[in-house]
Amino acid sequence: MLHELLLALSGHPSPLFATSAQDSSSPRAAEDFPLLSPSEAALLRSIASLSEVHRKLKRHLQSIASTHDSIICRAAAASILHLHLARFQQHILQVEKKILTKDASIVGAYEIVPLAAVVGEFDDWHRLMKWYWNLSEFMLGTPGSGHGRCTSAQLIDKLRVESQTGYPEIENAATELARVAEMAWLRQLTSWVVNGKLPPYGGNDFFIQRAAAEEPKFTKDRNLLPGFVTANTAASILFVGKSLHQVSHHQRLSQTTPALSTPSVSDGELASSHLQHLASLTLPIASSQFSRSIADIRLSLSQNVLQHLLPLRDTVRLLKCLRQFFLLDRGDFAMALISHAEERVQARQQSMSKLLARDAVKALQGLSIKDAELSQTLRQVWRSLMAKDDDGEDEVLEYAQSHVSLINPRANTSRPSTADSATEDAPEVSPISFNNLLFPNPTELNLRILPPMDLFLSTRDTATYSSISSYLLAIRRAHQRLNELWKQTAARRDLQASRTQHAVYRSRNTLRATAVRKVWATCSAAIFLLSETAAFFEGEIVRGSCDHFQEWVQQSAPDLDDSTTSNTSSQSTRHTQRDPETLAAGHRAFLSSLIYALLLTDLPYTSQLRSLLGNVDNLVAYFVRLLGIQQKMDGEEEATGEASAHLIQEEARISSELERARKKVDSDLKSVVSRLRQLDQERVGSTRYLDLRTIERGDFEVWKGGGVDRLLMKLEFGRMLADDYAIIRGSIE
Questions:
Q1: Domain coverage including residue 605
Q2: Predicted TM-score of the model (pTM)
């Protein structure tokens, strides 16, 4: 009987125990032994339960080790099966040896082996075997566990939690399995960090994934990221692998380029150095130690390879391009783009008016501006800028001509994505769109990023720049359109009255001037607000932020410790270029602080400003239309002595629409200034400026300037009066 008990504990089926057909998980002692006492039956049930768990556990673990999608889960299952359960089997053999050698600790008088003594030898294994069983269910994702098959990140995180349960046997088992799982995870990581390749096996379980695109693109999946890997460390891992992938790609395509074919360190030496960093990690992995190792690998890669692949000169040229053409630091570009866009829209409106009379459906279909027309408009802008360039050699302008385009944005790329961002709490751009003011349909500037420049600039960054450019262009365009009203000759001079000196004409012109007096006052107030806002955004915030960031970029990196990995003599160099990921992290911080200072993150303000810009367009359109109708009326009166009834009715209708548009602009002006006051009260203390936490030494510190109070001080804005509209210069109430 003892032999049968030991065989059953070893995982073999035994006639001593029968399993209920209704519940296979509750084995019980067979009722073929009527002489068993209740206590002996209870002892046998304990042995039966342990043996049944052992048998089922083996089946589960064999299934996991052979079929599971996760290599880490397979490694953990194989470790339990071949090491942990082997210890249980070894304990069974030790108990059998004690019985055979008649050890006094288990064999009593008259060579009787008490059943309670045998069962007592396995008391410490019940909790542990139950824990193994629960862990196998967690990995396999059985229907009763409440979840699907677990991932490597879930298993590693669970083992780390289980290692702190308070039960010594479970803590030891969980710690040992955590070492196995993390070692298997490190092997996957090695393929990416050392070779720039995704793991050949179990790649779907690795947190770096290849995006479905024509060009190779890699992204992070936070759901597959173990808990001990911080967001910034994960971004560094992604950066290192992408860099190695770019290096190998350029080496294949550019075998004749010295900087790429002969880096300062051979590939074998660099890989060996990176492997040493990973091999020095202690298991279980400490988060701080792991972050330092990845940082050293990143720095070694940057010093030995990436400075040849992505020199600082190219990065500075890209930043200048973004500053001049997306942040409108080059004012003649913005003016030329707005002017050519207005010409294109006016030409389309003239052709539409003719087509509308013949076929309204085709006219409505032709409202949108096609990509070819957008490209032609931008080419006209480039030609006008080149004509103004006296030297004829502008490297930044030439770079912009080949990389900047004017496009119709797709719906899925109109707003920046946070997929490639390492900063979890980065501010989001307001969803209010400003890209449908320059042309009838949404259009925006786009920058084509080619490798290896994508190591520095992400698609999210380019989308943010596109949003900023649309925002600034919309403000400048509205200001420019209002200014052009003063260039309307018919609006400024009464030619007919001054020429004929007729009393009727003088009276009519006086009535017209009185009717549009409020319109002129509203336009003056809007011009004042928009001009001060544009000057504040472009002249203070953009210029101050860009100057501060460019100075940081061109500064040398902080001095390196002796422990920093660099296999060349450049380790002793004190003035070194910052690595591309540090530049990219600083650029993300710069961009986040910029959109925060530009108030692009505030939904109420952007919504009210967008309403103001749209109503300004309506106001200008109705005003120009009214002037055109009045000129026609004057011409008819001079020719026939009387204006047509249709023109008189149209003048009355347009005047009514103009007054309605003026009131909307007045209301929007109040709302914008009111929101600025609220922001000035809300952004106090730590919220005055966006202060992103610095991650490590040498990180970029954002520019502290351009508070909302400075804009309010410049806006010596007026207020609405009950009967008249006036601009009262003085302090803002």
A1: 315-567+577-726
A2: 0.75
